Q: What sequence folds into this?
């Protein structure tokens, strides 16, 4: 079973070409989950106890804005990672994540990830670079979004 | 007795004289953007143009602006312009009703490289009102669909309400020979499409980077972000074409109002290959 999960982890772009040993270790702490369209994967304020790797379907990151209601901020797709609040205390989600369509996801236990990062510095550095790469691309997109380029006179 | 003066030769038609055309139909696209259908039935061959070209539209007594033609190039019986009311002239244009007259000069400018794209994959990347100048290119591609490889239309807008041509987008989405990807900067929970910026759609598009022509239309900053994403996927500067926007006066390469380094956007553009303009886009004074 954990071999299947290790194979699934290896197929996700975020963990692709990571060492077999690391994948096997993460596989022990991973479960595959399915979410029907419209359901929440997590909600703001809940404990951030998983790193999610999207395999199938689209996820909307939302923030509830008083007076305006839920506002979609970003869409995530297969190949993207979902949720980084497990990295830093107080380990709480800052946004809602909602399945826009049926979603299949690999959920990696955050505590195991954090332990692993402490115990294995080389793996920690590798994962940190991968996270930075994803974050940099997301930052670039957010910068463009912030410019509000299509506004009249922008 | 003084001999009669010889008859005056007929004056040459001035290239600056606009042709008065009547507004036949108006369609409100969004709160500040509208589409005008101009009556060209009085012209023998209708109004012929190449996708990407523009006209100078004159609101009598107010002024003239350059507006891309957004209709079907294979239907010369209809002259269509989609206009965003952002300045004095376009706001005055928005006030005009059906039956009012507009002055028209054109068509002008270098079109999209549809001949060069033949046999290749085509990526159309647009943001905001940038879909209007690319729509004629898409019509052309769909009329001649078999002559091209994959065709993908990537559309970005502020919100779902700001999307242009929504009914048409829905129709295009249903086609199996066209990939349509739409994203908005923000949306409520009822929106089931993507939320994010248009360059983020590039990885989702089906194309072979080695044989792709990308046609991009939108704000210049959007172009820069899009180019970075295209580079990541192996598309080179020579394969990217961009429609530039500058204020214009004569539209014939005479006055220099739209000068962009050695180019006049009105006659050398508006569609320019990215490798030609790349360095100048980084010059702040231009």
A:
């Amino acid at each position: 079973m954990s071999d299947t999960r290790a194979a699934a982890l290896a197929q996700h772009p975020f963990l692709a070409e990571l060492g077999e040993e690391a994948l096997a270790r993460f596989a022990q702490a991973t479960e595959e989950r399915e979410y029907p369209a419209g359901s929440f994967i997590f909600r703001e304020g809940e404990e951030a106890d998983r790193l999610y790797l999207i395999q199938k379907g689209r996820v909307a990151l939302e923030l509830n804005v008083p007076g305006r209601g839920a506002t979609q901020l970003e869409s995530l797709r297969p190949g993207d990672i979902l949720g980084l609040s497990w990295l830093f205390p107080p380990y709480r989600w800052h946004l809602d994540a909602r399945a826009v369509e049926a979603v299949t996801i690999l959920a990696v236990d955050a505590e195991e990830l954090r332990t692993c990062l402490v115990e294995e510095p080389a793996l920690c550095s590798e994962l940190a670079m991968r996270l930075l790469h994803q974050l940099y691309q997301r930052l670039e997109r957010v910068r463009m979004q912030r410019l509000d380029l299509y506004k009249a006179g922008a | 007795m003084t001999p009669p003066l010889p008859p005056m030769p007929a004056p040459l038609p001035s290239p600056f004289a606009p042709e008065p055309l009547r507004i036949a139909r108006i369609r409100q696209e969004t709160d500040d953007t509208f589409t005008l259908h101009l009556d060209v039935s009085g012209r023998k061959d209708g109004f012929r143009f190449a996708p990407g070209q523009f006209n100078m539209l004159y609101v009598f007594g107010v002024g003239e602006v350059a507006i891309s033609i957004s209709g079907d190039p294979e239907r010369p019986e209809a002259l269509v312009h989609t206009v965003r009311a952002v300045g004095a002239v376009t706001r005055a244009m928005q006030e005009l009703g059906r039956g009012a007259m507009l002055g028209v000069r054109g068509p002008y400018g270098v079109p999209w490289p549809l001949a060069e794209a033949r046999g290749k994959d085509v990526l159309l990347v647009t943001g905001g009102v940038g879909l209007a100048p690319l729509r004629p290119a898409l019509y052309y591609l769909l009329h001649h669909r078999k002559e091209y490889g994959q065709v993908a239309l990537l559309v970005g807008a502020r919100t779902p309400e700001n999307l242009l041509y929504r009914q048409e987008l829905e129709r295009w989405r249903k086609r199996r020979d066209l990939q349509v990807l739409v994203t908005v900067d923000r949306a409520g929970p009822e929106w089931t499409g993507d939320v994010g910026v248009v360059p983020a759609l590039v990885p989702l598009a089906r194309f072979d980077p080695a044989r792709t022509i990308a046609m991009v239309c939108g704000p210049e900053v959007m172009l820069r972000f899009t180019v970075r994403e295209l580079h990541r996927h192996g598309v080179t500067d020579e394969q990217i074409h961009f429609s530039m926007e500058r204020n214009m006066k004569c539209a014939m390469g005479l006055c220099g109002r739209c000068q962009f380094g050695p180019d006049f956007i009105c006659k050398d553009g508006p569609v320019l290959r990215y490798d030609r303009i790349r360095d100048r886009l980084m010059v702040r004074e231009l």
